[in-house]
Amino acid sequence: MLRPRASTERFAEDERGSAALEFIVGGVVLLVPIVYLVVTLGLIQSHALGVEAASRHVVRAVASAESAEDADDRAATILDALAREYDIPRDSLAVDVSCVGTAASCPAAGAIVRVTVASSVPLPLVPPVLGLDQAARVGVESSSVQKVSRYWRDG
User: Fold this and answer.
1) CB-based contacts of 116: which residues, under 8 Å, 6+ apart?
2) How far is it, in rounded angstroms, from Cα 88 to Cα 78?
3) Alpha-carbon gap, residue 100 to 107, rounded angstroms
4) Cβ atoms < 10 Å from Cβ of 16
5) Is 6 inside a domain boundary?
6) pTM reported for the whole predicted model
7) Which of 38, 70, 80, 95 places its Cα 20 to 30 Å from the Cα of 23?
8) Number of H helices, E strands in the chain
9) pLDDT in tens, 2-55
């Protein structure tokens, strides 16, 4: 009959009693990055939806405005409202309005108005040390186009 060796008995004693602790530590080690990923993707999606809505609504407002001043007022009002709704800092929104197909001022009759809105999303829990908060950002951008009526006139 074979007898167990002393070395195998010693290894058997070392393996007792730590499975519950290993499962807890392993679960926390896996759970924390997954929660961070979900929170980060939620922030990025929120900013992306806000930027998309801003470009869509601003281009519609500019294309249907009665005058260039009215277009500027409408665009500013829409951007302020959407920045509050989507919790995007207003100063982080970069807006570019341009007209395609016309050499005159923008908006002009028959022109195609293009509005591009861009922003950047700061990643959560990144400390403002050595400029890390500025480097750890994800850019989001959206463009929308709308044709201005050919009967549009300024004023």
Assistant:
1) 55, 95, 96, 98, 141, 142, 143
2) 13
3) 10
4) 7
5) no
6) 0.77
7) 38
8) 4, 3
9) 766 666 666 656 666 677 888 888 888 999 999 999 999 999 999 999 999 999
Amino acid code (one letter) for 144: S
The residue to which tokens 């979900």 are assigned: 38
CA separation for the pair 141, 132 (Å, rounded): 22
How many domains does one find in the chain? 1
Q: Is residue 138 part of a domain?
A: yes
Q: What is the DSSP letter of 90?
A: G
- Which token pair is 54? 């801003």
Q: Which residues contact 50 (CB under 8 A, 6 or more apart)?
A: 82, 83, 85, 86, 87, 88, 119
Whether 154 maps to a domain, the answer reads: no
Confirm whether 83 is domain-assigned.
yes
Range of the domain at 44: 21-147
